[in-house]
Protein 1
Amino acid sequence: MTAVFAFLIALSTLIESLPAWVGGDDTLRQNTQASLASQLSSGNADEVRRALEAVRTLDPQELSDEVRAAMADALVQESRRNNRRYWQDRRKTPPEPLPDPELIAALAEGVAELGDPRTIPALAEALGVGLPVIRALASFGDDAAPAVLTVVMSPESTHYAVNDGLIALRFMVERSRTSSSRLRAATVARMKAAAERHLTVRPRFIGTVWWAIDLAVSLQDERLRAVVEGLATDPRRVTDIGVSDPDVVYQTQRRAADRLAGVPPLPRP
């Protein structure tokens, strides 16, 4: 009986202590996330990388607002660093150091996976990194369109950002026809203006015109279709925007003709 009584007392003590253990876990989790947020905000590439790797092991649904905001801010800072380097290179000035060239891609993927509309501004600044950012912004539909359009129309954007922005806009248009994600008339009007501008203004790189062709045809607008038809049928329309290489003229005309014929553009949403 003495042994049984002692066992019952020990069991009762254990049960009474459980709430404290659970509360301790919650406190530990909060402290850990606060520490990760601090690392992400440090501005040190190694610290940010380690924190991001730790964050990626956690359930995104359990991440605190503080961590989410720190991830988005780290992405903005890295995007701006890369943007500055782009323009430094084009202006033939020494580029600032880039401690971790792959960090921007890792941050972009991590922020994109959050699926949080509050990260739209950060993702828009990261346009140019590739499909994770493009698809994340397209998934937000009309809510993300203004931020993407701002990048697409800004002379301060890299050509990589403009190209990815045009793809993201096309994804939004195509998604709006197969889902409940509708686009406002004002948004569509701004998309048309963006497509027309990049079809008719001398580009930094011809790829921008190609992505604009894809967007223009997807918008199903008669005026834009006429512009694309001009590119497809008259090589002078292509040379008028600064293209002199015969092979590139041919590729541009072929792309325009394919889209008019209904060949779907790649990548797909």
Note: The CA atoms of residues 152 and 162 lie 5 Å apart.
Protein 2
Amino acid sequence: MRCSQFRTLALAFAAVGVLAGSNPVVASVTYSNADVSLQVNGGEANNGTVPADGYFNYQLINVGVETTWSIDPLLILPTGQVINLANGLAGGFGSPVDNGGVAQSTAVISNELTVEANTTLNNLLASTTFNFITDGSLEGYKLVFYAENDIPPSDSNIAGTFGSLAGGDLILLQANFIPGGIVVGLLGGGLYNAQLSLYGSGLWTGFGTALESGDLSVLSSDGSNFVNGPGDLGLALGFDLSGTGGASLVVNYVAISVPVPEVGTFAYLAVAIGAFGGYRIFKRRSL
């Protein structure tokens, strides 16, 4: 099992190149405010879904907790090939570039397809728009946004949902109330030629490795295989791309700290749902 002490040591050793085969993030873009520090790595993590670091790292400053272990946008081609866009060494994004408060990362998938990600930080909300730039067809392409969260202690997280896929207001929630309370929310939708069609939660590491292999049976459209925990959990949203002339979708990630009187029960997710109300409005305006 992971622990915050192991992660701290691993990152420290990686920074000086002590860990054999490590690929420390060497070129990132960081945005911060009074509540959140967001480090956008693009493809500079150069690893898969199991090691620490990914497309971005999200830290709640007021409680000193980094809620993310590995954020991985997974592009699934019609052939079944999976490209982890957070892994620049395997065809993913290059280094991000700051463009007036927008961290831009680009991956050239083929002569016919380029994927661009634009990430911003607005208060607590880390929002990433993915643009799929092509003149050809996107039928059969999929994007899975996998968020392996690390809310300490990581092996006692619980997960749930609010809203629905059909209603267009689905929010995936992951929380830990030992001690205190931290809740992560993941939500998204299609902007053009893209549709949110699947979602899920699962245990580290099997959930992430299944997704990275292209196995989407760990997701569903109705939550029938959603893992509530407790356990070391991650969340995922799955999108279908279609049509010609490109596509676009957005994924929003947010974390909050909430005081709770007790621990370890889904009843207290209602506290978080109230706090997320404003972000549902933000989502509808954004989509």
Note: The chain has one domain: 29-286.
Protein 3
Amino acid sequence: MIRYCLGLVACLMATACVTPITVEQQTPALDFGLAAPSTTSPVSTSLDAAPAEVAATDAPKILVAVTDARLRTLEGKPENMIGYLRVYGIPQNWTVKQLGQKDLPNDATASDLLESRISLGLINAGLQAAAADVENIEDAGEIEALLEAEGGDRLLFLKLTDWHVDVNTSWVGRFQFNHDTDLAVLDAAGVLVEKNFAEREAIQAEGDKSWMNMVLEAFRDQMQEMLSDEEVQAALVIGRVEESAPEPVAEIVQDEAIEVEPQEESLPEEEFESTGT
């Protein structure tokens, strides 16, 4: 009973009388040098909604998959958990539902939240994007089949080994955000790029912001950092670049013929003597 009451207090302290920042404010701001979406209507971030129209119809379509491999969830914590809210030092589970995200279903997981925001960020940057259900990328055949079935050009796959905040509501100082993410971009032929982004951050709290909104901003900033990586962006937008074979040496010599200045023709020795000189 006491633990339940503490959990209720923690939830109220984090979310009561607080309006969450908008979905757009939670979305990573990305720049791929592409046109923005042509539609002026609001873009739906619902997991059940169809991908929004984009300005360039030939823009790559990126399938976005986030899988939860966090130790805490593997040990039995719910997949909708994003971290701990502490009341007088006692930790209470903090979930996606308690973040007040009306565009997501009540049972949305941490992976669902990230998939939704990443997909919208890619769409806003001029790409096509849609969430996909992928648990691992070990079977190349399955990835190829998925891309073909969904009309996707590439798969953006994130494996969360850690994604956890720890907030002490009794102390307005710093809060902990630990994250460890394996990111890969693949096409039908295989992996284009693989990277790991990991850090244990102590983020300074701001007195005029709620814990909920500061956490949502921290999530956004980390998504933006990963997707702003030059190699990741090149893999998403350009894809696989085939290396051209070196030009044969013989052709190079033929194309770059050396011009030789003409020289005066010398007379044969006998003709030279017959001139009497």
Note: The beta strands are 61-68, 81-87, 90-95, 128-131, 154-168, 174-187, 190-204.
Protein 4
Amino acid sequence: MLDLENDIQKKGLQLFLNDTLNIFKNNVVGVQTFELHSSQFTPQDLAEMSIQKPAVLLSLLGIKNIVTKPIGYGIILELACFVLADNAAQASKTLCNNLTILPFIENILTILESDEHWQLSQLPENIRAESLYSATGVQVAVWNIKWEQEITLGATSSGNLADFLNLGVTLDKTEEEKKD
């Protein structure tokens, strides 16, 4: 039964990540690529990425805490949104490099701080943004927006889940009912 609950938790977590990515897709204007990304990356990884920029890569960095609730589990996630844009300006002008990406950063921060998008979870907390790679010689400007967010997954406890899975109803019509 525990394996089934873990599967339900994983599927719920995946649905949350997909929904979050869709929120960004529907509200961040001008981005070419939206993808889930497995983790952080290095400047060398940027050269190997074949994605159209500007891009938003959503990543689950970790699970900070899990608490049992009356209905399901409260899971505090550590998330990151990596925003990539080509350096259209000269590589030696760091300020200009950041200017190409700042409208996307501002848009994502506005989404994270708005309560209209997070009906099924808590509002994001501890939001912070930082420029990662926009120095001289780097051909891609990259910003990292990190936050924590609590979601509730698994609307059952082990006992309730077992009862739900074992519940079955068979309806057989009598001969008289079949004639009607």
Note: The chain has one domain: 2-179.
